[in-house]
């Protein structure tokens, strides 16, 4: 392993290890990548390797064509989806795909997660979007690239930095952020939002969405120009 | 850090660390304050700092005007809600706000948690109350103070020492107690009550409330003049 | 502490510590007693003491009149319910009361847990029974003794050794066994049965009970004259 | 203990210990066997021994007639079901039976688990099948052998290597694989699939199955001739 990508591999590794630590996946489910936009490369988890056998040296460095730049193992089978997201969405430094239980449960219904409360509005100002179910001809094509395209299509009128997560219908969640650590944070928040929404929906199937004024207030409190949450 | 507020900061810190230990919040969600009524100051968690990086020295000491008396960091964005509660409710020594999963799931329905059983009645003698959804003009004002006012409004005909918890509609739970430790205890009990009520409601949507005689008996067994639970 | 009841206190203590270990209660909820039928005394948890501060020396030894024979603290407020069960049911060596989440969720519906599967039938050959809701006049009397009487009433035509658990309507579960360890085992099994039945009921509200032949087979495989489960 | 079956016993023991580690069963529920097809023997968990008291030397070696070849204890009461599966399904090296909570919850409804998403399709290309409820005359016969026969009957038109799991109606799941480790993996995946399907069904009772093209794609990505998942 060269020293060139050491820091990038370390970042990807640390973020991947958060997946089991946060209970977001079992066995080999899920993968995180860290992106170096200047060099045009990402470091990503190898395919099918369980978290408890993973090391930073196992991370694979791949360019935006999908070519392996460094690494002994085969990269995650979802690598091309990550690439589409980095190529299409500006400002992304990390992408995460998991099969976390509640977010996947919602993705399997093929419907967005309604914005029921402020936990949700603290992180995005709309329902968690859900893509269309992939058409058979797209499935037969370059499947992982098509998955990325579906997400892009779903975000045609959305700002991916304001809505840093999506459900792929019948599949599961993707989340992203300015770096890999933030991307995993968003994936964990999505799982918690999905759990709360499941509870709300089960208690009261007709529960109302949070009024717009409250959505705006909570989102801006953390993300707006006059944000006053946190230490900066 | 001066020695003046050391004990108050320690108390606030210990109570804040109970939040992740009891599984009541992830990341930075949730905050606890400890109140020194004689000095008119509270110690509270800093805004946006994760529990695993928190120390007692990070606690912020704030007066009832919201002015920072001691501390390097910015206090929790919910500080003004805590202040309203201390200023309005007598006998409070601690206040907790969490986004615990089941209590938040109920808060998102905008309805009280029905008093279905004795676990609930051991701690309060009525449904867990739920505030109104905040009106847009209040949201646009001093939001965190307005949140406090909504709770006060909801408790106009209630004794906050007998009902030490509330759901803020579309948001999440607040709980309190004679000290910060007791406040976190009430927050944890609320989450458990919310979980049990979710189960009861899902099994049998028309489940009946606990009869008044049983509510009274259980509440008085622990809190009445002839209480005989515990060691005092 | 005398040596006379050391072994009994130890047994009660060990069984009580299984309550938090098995996730059957938070804080001070729940209590276990161990019975010495020859001496006519039971050792039970003190009232309101959290599990993480409990020691074997804290156990209280009480006779069947409810008189404290040995111990510095006040016994569990549910002691008289335990006494009624030991006095009325032959062969009991341990009694447990918890507020475990799913069993309590069912108790709050006031209905028995249907015998949906073999996990259930391995332990009892009928629905988990549920008492009537206590009438107001009984509540006003000796409440804990009345709770015991309700259970006895519910078991008028039942064999408590074949059905070692019950739901007290609006309250929570009691379980028992030939010794305190077995009683806690039955309480943990009840919680698991309650969880499975919650899932079955939610997926398919009209799910059928297990046919009688299968109920009989599973129960007898473990408990019948020709039992062939286990090592004896 | 002879050295002859040491490796087989070790393999069975390691796989059995995964059951509590993965949260698939409490107490003595569940059992795993490892099969040595050349010698025609399997090593299996002893009946009724809790996992925390289990050692590799406790494993029982049994032949396909059910005769104990080596071991001091009585083998799992489910041994004959394991034997039927090894005798009927080619290529099996491990069999697992658990009472894992969500899979059992589904088994108790007597219905298959619909293939709602790609987590499911990554492992099998159809609903998780569910046997018929056993008829009374079969129950009265050699019960454990009959359980095996029911599974065989259910797989008359199925490939057990492509669908490595089943629900026994009113009872619980069985899973298998090319070795004991893979069998436990499949049992854990089944529990996770069952959990996700519970959530999907509860949110939206009419949720659609995953379209065939996606089912095929995901299954073949991992198991087809052109599989490209993992490191081989």
Characterise the protein shown here.
Chains A, B, C, D: Its cofactor is Zn(2+). Chains A, B, C, D: Keywords: Metal-binding, Zinc. Chains A, B, C, D: It is an enzyme of class 5 (isomerase). In chain A, 53% of the residues are buried. Chain A has a single domain, classed as Class II aldolase/adducin N-terminal domain (L-fuculose-1-phosphate Aldolase), CATH 3.40.225.10. In chain A, strand 3 and strand 4 form a beta hairpin. The first copy, chain A, is of the alpha+beta class. The radius of gyration of chain A is 17 Å and the shape is globular. Chain A contains 8 helices and 7 strands; from the N terminus they run H-E-E-E-E-H-E-H-H-H-H-E-E-H-H. In chain A, strands 4-3-2-1-5-7-6 form a 7-stranded antiparallel β-sheet, sandwiched between helices. The first copy, chain A, has helices at residues 6-21, 79-88, 101-107, 118-121, 136-140, 143-154, 180-203, 212-223, and strands at residues 31-36, 41-44, 60-63, 68-70, 94-97, 165-168, 172-177. Chains in contact: A-B, A-D, B-C, C-D. The A-B interface holds A 22, 116-119, 185, 188-189, 192, 195-200, 202-204, 207-208, 210-214, 216-217, 221, 228-231 and B 26-27, 29, 46-49, 73-74, 77, 99, 101-102, 104-111, 133-134, 136, 139-140, 143, 170-172, 198, 201-202.
